[in-house]
Each structure stands twice: as C-alpha cells, then as structure tokens.
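As a warm-up, study this chain.
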Amino acid sequence: MIELKNLKKTFGSFVAVDNVSLSIPSGEFFGFLGPNGAGKTTTIKMMTGLFTPTSGQIVINGFDVVKQPLEAKSTFGYIPDHPYLYDRLTGREFIYYMGGLYKMEKNDLKENVERVIDLLELASWVDKKTEDYSQGMRQRVTFASAFVHKPKTIIIDEPMVGLDPRSARIVKDSLKRQANDGASIFMSTHILEMAEELCDRIGIINKSKIIFLDTRENLHLHKTKYDGNLESVFLELTKEEKDQ
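Now compare it with the structure written out below.
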C-alpha cells in the first residue's frame, strides 16, 4: 500500500510538487500521467528515498520512507526510466546480486531468480554479460531484479523505454500478474494508451498539482465529453490548468 499525505517538494522558490495526497491499496495498478516538468519524477524520487520531501509524509506498506527508509525500501521494487546494470556481470548474476541486497535466504533466492527469469522470458540470453545487452534487454533484467524479492509495492518510471513490441507485451503481462498477486503498482508513463489499458485508476499532475484522479471506468465516461479519446482529455485538462 502507498500513502502520500500532503506531499510537497520545493527547490528554492520553485514548487515541484504541491500538496499531493494519494492512497493506492494493495492490488491496485495506478497510472501517474502529466506533461514534462509537471512533478512526476520528483514525486517518484521522494517515494524511493532519492529526494527528501519539504513537507508531508510518504508511507509505503506501513513504513515512513523518511523515518524508516530501510524497512520501507525492503518492501518495494523500483524500475527507473534509464536502468543501470553492472556491465561485467551477466543478467543472472545481476539478479542474484539484487536479491542478495534484500538479504534473501539462499534457497528462496535461487527459486525466485528462476521464477523471474521465466516470467520475463530471459533464459536465452540471461547468462551473457550485460555490456552486450540492448536497451530493451537491460530494461527486462531491471524488471526481473525488481521482482525477485516479491515486493508488496512496485514503483515504475516510464517502463516502456527502449522496448520492442514483444518485450513491451512481456512487461505488461508481468506487471498485471504482480497486481493480480496483490502488489500495489505506481506507474509514471507518457504512453496514454498503456495507462488506459493497464491501470485501475489514473491521476494527472500538472504544474505540481493533481488535476485529475478517477477510475478507468469513470475516465471512459469523462472521455465522452470530448471525442472519446484519452489524449484529448489529457490535452484539454493540462491546457485548462495552463490557461488559469
């Protein structure tokens, strides 16, 4: 479960995130949309402990990210938009390394490494050094390493970067499986169709504030006010915010 309570982040006089409150229960797939510079990545960096909030609170699976960082981080997996791997390791070695950081028992680690290799369909190249991987291959190994400890929460920033259509489908299916298994998923993306396809709820942030928050079903009703297209809803909402 993810809880953001009156979350705010400033850089000098610039307000990057302003009074954002969200609650994402276990098993919910949440899509976080917004134009460039709206506050999406800043929000994610606060959730993952990379930035400290100026004010407000972040609670992930019962742990305060600021006050209990290790406990909170042990319960979630994070997939950044530009994954970093150790080039001299194979994909399998990297996944084992990440599992070791979570202090998994040896037998559990071995079993779960095989599970995520199968889930992300990595077997044909997972024993090659990652320096030879394409962007899409690197991204799939990053997903595997984020799933290996069976996190209760998954935080994702632009998951489709560099993925070919088959890899994109594998990643989508793996994410849906995680949500079906009870994980709360927070996904930031620019791909509106992906958010509409996968997410139970969608939030739109613009100029540091949440301007839209509703279920996928209600979003479909909202779309009828425009031309039935999510892109039109997104452009109109962000345009209205800019014009105020």
